[in-house]
Each structure stands twice: as structure tokens, then as C-alpha cells.
Design a protein that fits this description.
Blueprint: H1 27-32, H2 35-42, E1 50-53, H3 58-65, H4 119-122, H5 130-143, E2 146-149, H6 172-180, H7 183-190, E3 208-212, E4 221-227, E5 230-236, H8 245-264, E6 273-278, E7 287-293, H9 305-310, E8 319-320, H10 343-349, H11 352-365
Parallel strand pairs: 5-8
Antiparallel strand pairs: 1-3, 2-3, 4-5, 4-6, 6-7
Helix pairs in contact: 10-11
GO cellular component, one term: cytoplasm
Keywords: ATP-binding, Chaperone, Cytoplasm, Magnesium, Metal-binding, Nucleotide-binding
Pfam families: D123
């Protein structure tokens, strides 16, 4: 998952310019972190099963890359995205009626055009990848609800588009909205190998991963950094203050260390990588959530990449860093907020009436 850029380098008058510590990343390191390349080996250690589509049609990739967001409506009853707005005197829908044409077939004054007069409204983007679309619908029906991702990234930055504010998708339509709204997904499609030092970039075979939805307590998620086959650092993924973590941090580090030594170290192909785990109470099991490249594009959270590239490994225990009460305000910003929109837009997206009111207010402010 792409993260914040690291900007430790700087200069001062009369001093030499600081230089980033180089972090070598190969194309093989990137490919090793692709979901299908590690899932088969470690599926028994993941919290839920996953359906991986390895032969994603080019038409689907083109659909994700298109700037416009046109969604199929063949599963309207299964999605919360298409909620009817009750016409009233306070919204722009009050004058819209079906069959609002005059005898000549033209829209009557003050009436909205019907779909028959606007062929573009009838376009169903899924017709270009109809078989794949049906496979996605079947997989969602089989798994119940899913969290989608491509080879490397999940659309965590686009959850503000969803009614439940999570990546949980009950329909293909919701899944497409998440994927098309995400900068992280765009990263996979066009910038996955930007950080590598190889001269030849391999041709990417894109895959769609549908993971069965599972509720996870964010306080139990941790990001772990491995450099040269040594676990060097651990930090919570959720940058909120949890007072109880201080009391159990030694146990957390021990559990993750055992998991790394016994499960990941013997089998994972890269010497340096970043892995995410989930430890639910009572901390009797470690679940593998994801694997990312040991590269600056991966969010380093409470560490800096300069620290991670230069710190001396502790043979006894990796460095553990958490948000403490003294600095909790420093990390009060919500995760992925740089990819979001103003709060009033988010609130309005949860209420059709509020969305209409926001649009009216916007029109008044521009008059």
C-alpha cells in the first residue's frame, strides 16, 4: 500500500546536504509481495479465505482506469448505493416525473429527459467484461461480503465513498465504486514498480483479490519491518492512543517474533519486506493480513524510512513504537485522510436529502 513520502533529507547554510540512505528494491521484491505469490504458502495463517482472479480481462483494467464513474445497476437490490430520493419541494427532483415528454417525444418544459432519450444513461460498463462481472457476483454470493484489492493495494483511501465507511462490499457495484475511487488502486495500475532499481520492468499480470469480510479490532493490527532477514521494528497500524497496549507490548513483540521466525522467515522469498498482522485477544493467534515491499512507498507509520534503513538490529527484540498519551494529539488525523474530501461532503454522502441540500448551498455560493 502506498504511504507517506519520507522527507528527512535537508540542508543548512554552510553544511553539506543530507542524502537519503539508499534502499535497494528489485522487481522480484515487488512481485513477491503480490497477493497470489504469497497467499498459497500462508493461507492457513490468514484470518479469512480469499478468491483470487488471476486472469483479469483487459477491458476490466481499462474500466478501472477510466476517469468517469459509471456503475452497473443489475444488482440494485443488493447495494445501498442506489437509494430512491423522495421528491419534495426542497429538492431538485420535485419536478421530475416519468413520461415527462410532450406528444412529439420531446421533454416537456420543466421535465427531466427520460433514459430512452439519453442513451448514455443506459450504458452498462459491465457488458464489456460480462463473464468476469458474473464471476465477481458469484464470488460475492459465495463469500457473503468481501474486501477487494488488486495485486498489492486495497482501496482503504476510498472508504468514505461507502455507506458503512469500510471496504465491506455486498455487491459488484459497491466493489467497482471502491476500486475506481482509490488512488492506491491507481498506484497498482501505473506505478507499482516506480521504486525499483532494475533496468527491465516485468509485464504485470493484474489480479483481483476478494477476501471474505472479517471484522478486525484496529487496536490489534500491527506493521512489522524486516531488513536483511531480521525483524527490526513493529508499530501499530492504527495511530490512535490505546492505553492497554503498553501493558501487553512485550507479549505482542514475542508473539510476532515467533510467528516471523517459524512461519515467514523460512518461506518468504525476499530478504527485506514489510508484513501486517492481526492479534485478536487473548493474543493466542497471529494472523497474516498483508505483505508489502521494504520501500519508501510503503507507509512507515511511527518510524521514518531513514531510521528503518540505518538502525542497528537488536538481537534480543525488535524496536516497538506506539502512540503514547503524551503525543496522542500529534496523530489525531484519520488514516488516509489525505485522500479524502471535506467532512460536510462525507456527511452528505450518507444522506440523500443532505446531499441535495449541500448541492443547493454550493449553487448559492457560486451565484
Amino acid at each position: 500500500m502506498p504511504g507517506r513520502s519520507d522527507t528527512e533529507a535537508g540542508s543548512a547554510e554552510g553544511a553539506e546536504t543530507a542524502i537519503f540512505t539508499e534502499i535497494p528494491v528489485s522487481s522480484e521484491d515487488i512481485l513477491n509481495c503480490s497477493y497470489s505469490n504469497w497467499y498459497d504458502q500462508f493461507s492457513s495463517h490468514t484470518i479469512t479465505e480469499a478468491k483470487i482472479f488471476r486472469d483479469v480481462p483487459e477491458e476490466f483494467i481499462e474500466y478501472l482506469q477510466n476517469d468517469d464513474i459509471v456503475l452497473p445497476k443489475d444488482d440494485v437490490s443488493e447495494s445501498s448505493l442506489f437509494q430512491a430520493v423522495e421528491p419534495n419541494s426542497d429538492n431538485d427532483y420535485s419536478d421530475w416525473e416519468e413520461g415527462g415528454e410532450d406528444e412529439g417525444g420531446e421533454p416537456a418544459p420543466g421535465k427531466a429527459p427520460s433514459q430512452a432519450q439519453n442513451p448514455k444513461v443506459l450504458d452498462n460498463p459491465a457488458t464489456k467484461f460480462a463473464r468476469f462481472h458474473q464471476q465477481i457476483k458469484d464470488a460475492i454470493k459465495e463469500l457473503g461480503s468481501v474486501a477487494p484489492k488488486l495485486n498489492w493495494s486495497a482501496p482503504q483511501d476510498a472508504t468514505w465513498m461507502m455507506m458503512n465507511n469500510t471496504m465491506q462490499c455486498h455487491s459488484a457495484t459497491e466493489l467497482y465504486l471502491l476500486l475506481k475511487s482509490s488512488d492506491y488502486i491507481n498506484h497498482d495500475l501505473g506505478h507499482a514498480f516506480d521504486c525499483v532499481t532494475d533496468k527491465e520492468i516485468p509485464k504485470v499480470k493484474y489480479e483481483l483479490v476478494l477476501r471474505k469480510w472479517a471484522e478486525m479490532n484496529p487496536s490489534g493490527e500491527f506493521r512489522c519491518f524486516v531488513r536483511d532477514r531480521q525483524l527490526i521494528a513493529i508499530t501499530p497500524r492504527d495511530l490512535n492512543y490505546y492505553s492497554f497496549l503498553e501493558d501487553i507490548q512485550d507479549e505482542i513483540v514475542e508473539k510476532i517474533g515467533i510467528f516471523f521466525d517459524d512461519v515467514l522467515l523460512p518461506k518468504f522469498g525476499s530478504n527485506s519486506f514489510v508484513f501486517d498482522v492481526y492479534l485478536p485477544k487473548p493474543l493466542d493467534r497471529v494472523y497474516l493480513v498483508d505483505v508489502n515491499p521494504f520501500a519508501r512507498k510503503t507507509d512507515s507509520l511511527l518510524f521514518t524510512w531513514n531510521e528503518l534503513a540505518t538502525m542497528q538490529p537488536n538481537d534480543e527484540s525488535p524496536a516497538f513504537r506506539m502512540v503514547e498519551e503524551a503525543n496522542s494529539g500529534r496523530f489525531a488525523t484519520k488514516a488516509h485522510s489525505e485522500n479524502r474530501v471535506p467532512r460536510d461532503v462525507v456527511d452528505a454522502s450518507l444522506d440523500a436529502r443532505a446531499l441535495v441540500e449541500l448541492a443547493q448551498e454550493w449553487d448559492r455560493s457560486n451565484q
